[in-house]
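dumping this here so i dont lose it
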């Protein structure tokens, strides 16, 4: 059921030496939700995630643990990073590891192509390097150390001392791409989103670009520079290329033509790599630039960017063990404006779980199914004549579906959920107003009772379809309980862009008992 419109979307590839925390989980579920949406809408969708396994950070972590870097990353990826995808119910199409031969060989091919095209030269380099960032730091991000680091230059992000590196390096002529990049941001205003991220990138590039050091010779945990084996390729160049190597760059032209270019979703901390360096690399190689880069904000815990090194890291399982994966997905994607920073707190999570999921959506589902069981022996009634109030619900459903799809096009998952939630709120109000329990008392209002319950059930059918990319597990339960799978097939085969049509759920279908979608939780 693909329409042919290609939609290829990626998460950043994560450093496996950090254990997965809710910040990594946030990016991953956002990308998964966008991918699920497009997939279910019939777009030719591909979702990629993976791990970034080379570089000095990884080498040192392995050494500190007394194992080889390959053993170290193998263990972490298997024990922590693959399981994260299950914990969060992620339906990725591929998982790339930068230590895989399919990646390493193509990276060498790409870098060789840049060299052959004259975009790489050798030079001497001396600069301050942050191993945490895996980056030579620009002036603006170098600050004076305090406490134990008094008298030293430290990284503004990691607050750890920088290391002075002096090496022969190969350089990529990034400076040559300033004008072409500015032209790109101008002709494609959506290339970097949101607006604040775009402005930052434009002013950064306007202030001038320096050539980029793209090789290291002081250590060897990386991909060898093909024409000079004493060097390994800079870990960020290696990492960015995953987006291309994973879809057949250099070895499967058909797959590459089908998927490329991609949309990249990244945290704002790594925006410049994606919106400046990466498109310049692609231009130099004569390839298409990405379709777009969306930078989301940081999760803040206690007002600070959450991070493991600052001991504010929270493992996703701490949340999913208590609230489930759907609640995790819903909470982060609805409570934070996508593109802005957002504060996480257990209180806020619990309150929203209770109000929006348990009392709002869950209760609507349980009572509708329960009333159909009680008043119609479990058979979805046929609607009679519709009143103004019923037609209003139908319009709300149609508008919500259209608005949600438009919001997803803008990558605003939070706005999509808000649009969909108008259905939850409207239906809860509708049931209160129409009092089906009162209609059930009088045989004369039986047809009206049928219309009201059909309206509620059909609204829930639309909700199940629209919310399935966000909450795949609970919507599946609801779908089955509504008896929808009987006549309509599987939930994830329901065409998403037609979710707002009315009259899809078939009268006569048999509902099944529904255990609470969002059970009461003991306060964490
Ligand atoms: N390996 C590089 C990325 C290479 S992409 C070609 C890297 N990895 S990372 O493990 O540090 O992950 C960075 C990403 O994790 C961020 O861009 C962001 O998507 C996510 N987050 C990490 N901490 C986060 C928060 N506190 N809040 C939100 N997202 C966070 O950088």
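and the seq i came up w/
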């Amino acid at each position: 059921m693909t329409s042919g419109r290609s939609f290829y979307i990626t998460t950043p590839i994560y450093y496996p030496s950090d254990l997965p925390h809710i910040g990594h989980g946030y990016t991953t579920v956002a990308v998964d939700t966008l991918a699920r949406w497009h997939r279910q809408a019939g777009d030719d969708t591909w979702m990629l995630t993976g791990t970034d396994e080379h570089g000095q950070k990884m080498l040192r972590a392995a050494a500190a643990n007394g194992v080889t870097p390959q053993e170290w990353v193998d263990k972490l990826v298997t024990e922590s990073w693959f399981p994260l995808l299950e914990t969060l119910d992620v339906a990725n199409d591929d998982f790339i590891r930068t230590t895989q031969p399919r990646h390493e060989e193509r990276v060498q091919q790409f870098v060789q192509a840049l060299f052959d095209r004259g975009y790489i030269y050798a030079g001497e380099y001396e600069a301050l390097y942050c191993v945490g960032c895996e980056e030579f730091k620009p002036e603006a991000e170098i600050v004076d150390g305090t406490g134990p680091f008094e008298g030293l230059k430290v990284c503004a992000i990691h607050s750890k001392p920088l290391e002075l590196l002096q090496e022969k390096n190969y350089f990529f002529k990034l400076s040559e791409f300033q004008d072409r990049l500015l032209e790109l941001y101008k002709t494609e205003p959506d290339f970097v989103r949101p607006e604040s991220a775009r402005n930052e990138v434009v002013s950064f590039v306007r202030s001038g670009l320096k050539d980029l050091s793209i090789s290291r010779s002081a250590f060897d945990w990386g991909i060898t520079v093909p024409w000079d084996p004493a060097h390994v390729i800079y870990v960020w160049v290696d990492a960015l290329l995953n987006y291309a190597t994973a879809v057949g760059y250099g070895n499967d032209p058909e797959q590459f033509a089908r998927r490329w270019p991609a949309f990249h979703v990244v945290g704002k901390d790594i925006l410049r790599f994606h919106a400046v360096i990466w498109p310049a690399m692609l231009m130099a190689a004569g390839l298409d630039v990405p379709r777009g880069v969306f930078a989301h904000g940081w999760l803040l815990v206690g007002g600070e960017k959450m991070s493991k090194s600052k001991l504010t890291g929270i493992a996703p399982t701490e949340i999913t063990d208590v609230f489930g994966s759907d609640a995790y997905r819903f909470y982060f994607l609805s409570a934070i404006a996508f593109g802005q920073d957002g504060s996480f707190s257990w209180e806020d999570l619990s309150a929203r779980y209770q109000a929006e999921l348990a009392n709002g959506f869950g209760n609507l589902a349980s009572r509708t199914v329960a009333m159909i069981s009680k008043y119609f022996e479990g058979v979805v009634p046929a609607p009679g004549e519709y009143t103004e109030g019923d037609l209003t619900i139908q319009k709300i459903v149609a508008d919500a579906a259209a608005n949600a799809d438009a919001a997803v096009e803008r990558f605003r998952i939070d706005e999509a959920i808000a649009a969909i939630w108008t259905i939850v709120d409207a239906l809860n109000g509708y049931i209160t107003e129409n009092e089906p329990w009162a209609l059930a008392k009088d045989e004369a209002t039986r047809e009206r009772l049928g219309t009201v319950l059909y309206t509620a059930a059909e609204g829930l059918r639309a909700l199940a379809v629209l919310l399935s990319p966000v909450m795949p597990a609970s919507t599946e339960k609801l779908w089955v309980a509504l008896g929808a799978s009987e006549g309509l097939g599987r939930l994830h085969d329901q065409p998403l862009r037609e979710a707002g049509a009315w009259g899809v759920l078939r009268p006569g279908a048999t509902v099944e008992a529904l255990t609470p979608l969002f059970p009461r939780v003991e306060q964490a």
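The domain at 346-498 is CATH 1.10.730.10 (Isoleucyl-tRNA Synthetase; Domain 1).
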